[in-house]
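Hi team,

Filling in the usual template for the complex we talked about on Friday. All components are listed, including any nucleic acid strands or ligand strings, so the model treats them as one assembly.

SUBMITTER: L.P.
PURPOSE: interface mapping
COMPONENTS: two
RESIDUES: 597
SEQUENCES:
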Amino acid sequence: MIRHALAFLAIALAVAVFPAFFGNYPVKLLHEVLIWGIFAMSLDLLMGYAGMVSFGHSAFFGIGGYVAALALKVYPGVLSALVLPALAAGLAALVIGFFSIRVSGVYFIILTLAFSQMFYAYTFQVAWLGAEDGIFGVPRTSLFGVDLARPAGFHVYLLVLAALAALTLWRIVRSPFGHVLRGIHENEARMEAVGYPVNRYKLLAFVIAGTIAGVAGSLYTQLNGSIAPDAFLWTTSGEALLMVIIGGTGTLGGAMLGSAAFILLQSLVSTYTERWMAILGLTFVLLVLFAPGGIVGALRGRVGLRA
Amino acid sequence: MSFVPDLFGQALNGLAYGVLLFLLSVGLTLVFGMLDVVNLAHGSFYMLGAYSGLALIAATGNFWLALVAAPVVLALIGALIERSCLRPLYHRSPLDQVLLTFGFIYLFEDLVKWIWGGRIRSIPAPDLFSGSVTLFGATVPSYRLFVIGFGLAMAVALWFLIERTRLGAIVRAGVFDAEMTAGLGINIDRAFTGVFAFGAALAGLSGVIAGPIQSAYPAMGASILIPALIVVVVGGLGSLKGSLAGSLVIGQAETFGKAWFPEAAMLIIYVVTALVVLLRPQGLFGRPLK
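RESULT (copied from the run log):
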């Protein structure tokens, strides 16, 4: 417990002072790691704890991103940057989840995938959302007097939000609610028989994960100043799944580690060779085959740490 | 262009696309039915088929030879993947298999970019079908008619193979209950490899056939994967009849949708898919869920 807290603080501190030692490009990479990490952690709540493997989690990432883009252009402020995107993504998760939790396994995968592709097909076509080019020139806002357009301000903002997301999710998975989710993952019929309203628990998990994914999407828009329909594409969900698996499912910290590994691998390999996709694919195949527990699983096996 | 020829031309385009989807979805649906694996790399097999065809045509100058040889190449790749990568995962969660095949999408797409570059490569139609014919006032490339005829002939041949031969009986039994089939003395391991390789070969075959219509490009596999998955789910997982019906419906829906309501075409297809999964999860022709 204390060791976990110390590790968390050490990482937060390292992230905080990172820009003092590195240039613009590594800092941009770090920001991407944090944002994708938030997104992957929210997916881990679904797949790692509740056992719901969604191939449509990009729906909420995209909704958060688009709502932030539209709102920030009209009315810059915390409402547009965080509150509205989170609410919109949460509401969408409530509707999509209401239908999706009725089926399971492959059907759940296909249904969530179909829902996210609907958003892709729609945003790709309609002119008012910029069609296939998406929305550009989204300004950053200022928060509590801190100008997020300045690099230092944005860095602190991302760090605080990533830490908040991690703490919130960590608190959730260790609450009685989180234990019920794990129970559903282990044996849904038993939880039902014991008297838990399983569907209500699953829906709530889906909405929480969707809301946090919406925040990640909004941050992604704020980082780049733009958002495009690709955010909704099923491969966006697939990449987040990869991150969770690389890091280790059902560990939260693993999702953040996986995000770091994925983005570092992508940028490192792509500086040496154009073949980063092949190397990434191969790494992934090998990981699934030989290290199903991901990085965290491998570490625990070797160092003998227990959860 | 007047209304009737236009309608007729569109219907033929939709039929050609539907036939391609059918050849692709057979492998997907049989592999799911028997091995319980959702093979996301199935689109990659289609793409590899198109590029193998391209290479074989470049080497031999003969389209027909490529049409026969590319599926053999893909069958070997499929058998290799099943034996070396999928087999160790059967006792693990089905998710691991989905993720493994997702990794192969990246690997294959990039390998193809490496060897052939990222740009679109056109594949010429065979000389025999390089012209076009006029039917009901519509000018139709004769290659498209060949694709439709070939695809329908393949559908009949597949029906015969699955429903009327001993091999087909083993596959049907494996789809119904793989463990029981093994218990009856069938070598189910070999059947698994065979079905996976067969599915890959069919995907490769449809890749070669699609070449002269759609050209070959690295992302072609990822972009046809979702329609093929939709066909399989709408038709009913593990059902050959369902795949045929699903492909023909989705083929027409997409072609007419794109021509008449370009804004909403893709959206409608996903809405229909979601409705089928919700209201009739076994699909149109699938067995009721256990």
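MY TAKE: The first strand of chain A starts at residue 142 and ends at 143. DSSP finds 13 helices and two strands in chain A.

Thanks, L.
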